[in-house]
Write a structure and sequence with these properties.
five-stranded mixed β-sheet, 42% helix, single chain, alpha/beta
Amino acid sequence: MWFYDLLTVGKNLSCSHIDVCFYYLRKKLKYDQSVKISGNTTDSFFASQIFELYNEFVASGENVDSIKKDSKAAAYIAGFYMLCNKPWAELDFVLMPVNVIVLAHWILCILDIKMRCLKVLNSMRFGRYKNNSESFVRAFAVIIPILLSHVNFYEGRKDIDRSSKHWQGKKDTDAFDIVVVDNLPQQEDSDCGVFIIKYAHFFMHGLIDKIPKKLDIAFTRKKLCVDLFVHAKKKELGGYESTSEHPGRMP
């Protein structure tokens, strides 16, 4: 049924689908030489940790010290916890799938580290799907800068131009700007999960400005199924174990 749901147009994708597909994209970001950006992906659990920390932050009266330095979200940023992870200190972009729970709707958030912003890619940009999605992103815009500060992220980033307009007048723990990406293809059925996977794929290859105005969702779903099956078969035949990519736990 897992592959059936991934294959069938109009079927919602579960957290399991998103996590597997973004793991596959993460491996491409790490190993595929045709991918030119320095990036990584996260998973649905990372998003749930951000929301949990944000609720604690609001309940504390927005006290920065309420955010735990040894949180699981901080471990992600330091390069631990998740298979095939990399420390964010080595990256320029982080592609994050976000489930807007109140809408059962997936969106893609891309952290642009040098421009100090979160880019929001949404396949349903109207009414409550637009407003609720963008309000959900605020949790990421607020919490991630605090976590970066906690893991001493900026100490090793001499390549960041703090005199640029994106950084002027900003403290390290100030919230990121939120930028909504326009002119993206929009869904016609319950295919939001497939859309964010495709958005991520085009972005990784520097082609987000060239994404078609309309996606062939039936073909995209079929190709995802084939790509994942072939990848898994190669791992099986080659005796490869994913546990070898486990980065361990943050000290």
